[in-house]
């Protein structure tokens, strides 16, 4: 080893450099671990999305695109410490309010929806909220503002009058809809061109008045409610769900038979949820994409007319069918009412899909769907399926 005096300064400077480097890396490691281990510094987010819990944040939505996330969204979604510490029900000392994973994928709409004055009135933005929900931002984040209400609200008609009476126009806010009163909604099947969801639903004295009351000569596709109930012991069908139930006439018919039905419905260019509530039955404002908000093996019957059809992506439909199976009790009924598809889709895709779920077939009727012309080769399936008492 060379120990000459001229090499000592170089050796000393090298040692000081390594000491400085070691201290720096230790400090950096400590700093990063403090951030990553803090339960209050970061939200739980979709892969690739990191949102600090500050009043302004940047979220990576897609490659090369970023936007500021509103402080109210962060205030709602951030983890909140439980007042009494660790709770065995949560298996945690922190609660994270649920919000749809896709919310942060649409930052412009999210910013508009979550920008408002706290403790004041909410913006009149029903259309914006529904678009976010349909895109997968479901459930929507809660907001700390008062929802817009009608300025001249009139209390609903009493039961049983409310079941078959159109409510006053002043009972809701019409901003989000093409029609601005119920007369327009009732007449739109005659006056309005183009497609609208359930165009004739609001006319309670039209088709709704006879729907599901009798078996019609439509090739056996139209089951009546009494025909379906007759497949079970009297009184054993008590509670259930109607998926995409329009203005809830199915629920009203069942209510007249002392059966409680909750109806899911969206407000697709019409105040479906308000109208359902005005009739005296319960609306549930969720899309077909959301997990059904019921516990396993609890419902006696699930019904859906037209909504469950080939417009739904096949994998999503498969998940939905199994979710229906989940919430039905053993022996419960799934009434698939006028499922439609095209040509060979029924045998090639949908029959195997439905059969894979494991229902028993009580009724199974296939017929032609001709309302848009025979050249489209559209088909209907009406089926009454039963959840078996014992799984295979």
From TrEMBL:
Respond yes or no to whether keyword Zinc is given for this record: no
Among the GO molecular function terms of this UniProt record, one is:
methyltransferase activity
Kindly state a single biological-process term from the GO annotations of this entry: methylation
Provide GO CC annotations from the record.
Answer: endomembrane system; membrane
Q: Give yes or no: UniProt keyword GTP-binding.
A: no
Provide the topology term for how it sits in the membrane. Single-pass membrane protein; Single-pass type II membrane protein
SUPFAM superfamilies in the record: S-adenosyl-L-methionine-dependent methyltransferases
The primary site where this protein sits is: membrane
The record's listing under Gene3D superfamilies reads: Vaccinia Virus protein VP39 (3.40.50.150)
**Which parts of the chain span the membrane according to its record?**
12-36
Compartments in which it is found: Endomembrane system; Membrane
What superkingdom does the record give? Eukaryota
Keyword terms of this UniProt record:
Glycoprotein, Membrane, Methyltransferase, Signal-anchor, Transferase, Transmembrane, Transmembrane helix
Signal peptide span per the entry? none
> Record's family?
Belongs to the methyltransferase superfamily.
Name recorded for this polypeptide:
Methyltransferase type 11 domain-containing protein
Native source organism of the sequence: Citrus sinensis
